[in-house]
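Quick question about two entries, pasted in order.
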Amino acid sequence: MSDKSHDYYEKLLKHSKDMANSLRTQLDGVVYETFLKPPNEVNLLCYQKMYTENHGKSKVTTCEEMQVKIPGLAAICEKCMPFFLEQRSDLSKSQDTITGVRFEEPFREFLKSLHIDAFDAATVDMRLPDIGIKNRKKDVTVLLEIKYHNAPFIKARQFVSPNTECYDGSLTVDVEKCANEIQVAKKIYPSAENLIVHWIDFPCLKCILWDKLETALGKTVYERMHRAGDYEGGHKVGYTKKTYHFVRKIHDFDSLISTIQSLANRV
């Protein structure tokens, strides 16, 4: 991880400490034991091997090969695989939304600590992406959708693509949700850039990566298995149409902050 990306991630975790402690209790048995813990030496080496050295490639290194390259990874995989192969949560749509919103506040506070004018976009319209960013003239120039990922898809190579692995092919994106957000954003803030931020908190890979929100559209879409939590009062409320962003194809934390600062300075 670049020095700046690492520093930003450590700073974000400090802003997330209270939220993390609360959610560990609330979601006991759902989240893994390394939930929102700072990256250790193995995690940093995972970032180098899984992200930096794979970046831009058409096919990633297999998990078996990674275990040879990264001392300590095999032990992580041995515990991780059975935990994430088991279905652990049937949170309702409203519970899932409330949990997801918890990650937005520390991210906003982190941005503010960098003198970035970030605000809760839901105060303007609930259908917008999560966080808005204003420039010096108080025009909204950036909108961020925050997507937290705690669970690697262990069978990604089998079901997503033979060119991926669980550490690379687990970043699901809600296609319907993103399409709606883009439509609303273009009406309210037509000049704003819409970005999606992936907060990756796997047992192996821990980092922030990002891309333009529009990249969630026009890609291969699949319908995930429906769960009890997708229905409330007999009506379907959960988003089940998904696509994937691949770790090797998207951008690092340092470039996210540089992009936001550049857009925030645009007048």
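Here is the second entry:
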Amino acid sequence: MADSRWNSSSPASPRRRGVPAWITVPLALLVGIAILVFAVAGRASGLRRQAWPLLQTVHKRIATDEGARELFRMNPACAEGYASEEAFLEAVRAWRPKVGALPAVEPTEDRKGYHVSADPFELTVAASGEGGGWLRVRFVTGPAAAGQDVGEGLTQLVFADSFRSLQDSSRLARRQVRSRQWAEFRGLTARLASDEAATALFRAEPGLRQGWLSEEAFLQETRSWRPFLAAIPESLADAEKDEATRAQFSRNQSPLGDSREIRLEHPGGVWKVTWRNGALAAISHRTR
């Protein structure tokens, strides 16, 4: 009689032997990494092809006062490198004849007259004109390189007499930006010193309502921060000299908007202020 049990002794089908997991998993990771590397390299190469047209566009716009003003207004990140629109315009007017016309065609890339730097985060282009002066522009990459980011994606425009001097001009511009940002940071935190000023701040900044449901909740928490207001140096220079404090500046630009943050570490804790699209979004203090 045939055995009707499920566990009858019929011969089992032979199992196929595949590639061991200890080989397939690392292999898949290596393939993924290779694809990512080639994608990033391809993107950087594509951005480099946009370098000269982007530089020409900026150069053409700053050839007139009207174009320079528009460039300033449409690129807030770049504008922060100058004290005001008039200061930007004054610099542009002074450097127009010093830079002069750009070459009719894209030059060979070298540090004598033309230089391009591209990575997944930014594109930097520098060139000298017929007048001998240099200009350098820096764009955030991604959509910004096509003019689709916050403003138009231009984050820096500086001038100098030589390629080497561009570094000094860049550092000076960055320093001016951070000094103004520090003054804004210092002014905001100072408004937490009293209930009256803190209440006015909460009412004037809609972004703060995402962190606190009511004025009273905001006041209750910020009152506990007041003993640490004295830890905030008056100026950025003071903060840099003070070995007990550490100031950090960060910025993130994306198609979703512009976000920047200042973080100050001190012995009693950490202050942090965040802005999104130019408006105050958050302020906090974490006690150690």
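Reply: The helical segments are 21-61, 65-74, 76-79, 85-99, 163-190, 195-204, 215-223, 236-241. The longest helix spans residues 21-61. Hope that helps.
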